[in-house]
Amino acid sequence: MQFNPKALFIPVGLIALGLLYQPGGYAADWLFPDSEWATRWRYGLEDDLEGAVYQFDKQPHDCEFMSAPMGSKHCHYERQVATIRIRTNQSRREVSFDEGRTWFSAEGTERRAVFVTWKNVQE
């Protein structure tokens, strides 16, 4: 029986992709903070947000340097992300509205969600 290096490439490649998938989501979200696909990738990695509904507000543009009147507007917008996380512990359903810091008993109507809004920051 002869050794075939191509047969080894597929499993090693799949393992490498698996190891890079999660760090890639965080890196994409950091590199492209305005991107919806990067936000979906990063927050889709978390178990408490699996199958979440995403709502993206449009980023305002009233701080642009080249918009009338011309010149510095002395402001920019920062992305704000809020989540509704749901987990199940031994037949108990819990919900968190503060990024998983505190958990409460959940009703059956709550759904996982990610909300992206923009906050005006004055310079």
Secondary-structure map with pairings?
Blueprint lengths: L4 H27 L4 H9 L8 E4 L18 E15 L2 E5 L7 E2 L7 E10 L1
Parallel strand pairs: 1-5
Antiparallel strand pairs: 2-3, 2-5, 3-4
Q: Could you characterize what this model shows?
A:
This protein is α+β, with helices and mostly antiparallel strands and 123 residues long. The protein has one domain. The chain contains two helices and five strands, in the order H-H-E-E-E-E-E. It has a five-stranded mixed beta sheet, covered by helices on one side. A hairpin with a 7-residue loop joins strand 3 and strand 4. Helix 1 packs across helix 2. It is flat, with a radius of gyration of 21 Å.
Number of domains: 1
Largest sheet: 5 strands, mixed
Which outline best applies?
Answer: flat
Structural class: alpha+beta
Ranges where pLDDT stays below 50 over 5 or more residues in a row are none
**Oligomeric state:** single chain
Q: Helical region count?
A: 2
Termini distance?
Answer: 69 Å
Rg: 21 Å
Number of strands: 5
Order of SSEs, N→C? HHEEEEE
Strand fraction equals: 25-35%
Q: Indicate the percent of residues in helices.
A: 25-40%
Mean pLDDT: 81
Strand line-up across the major sheet: 1-5-2-3-4
Outline:
This protein has 2 helices and 5 strands.
Key structural traits:
single chain; 123 residues; alpha+beta; 5-stranded mixed sheet; 2 helices; 29% strand; flat
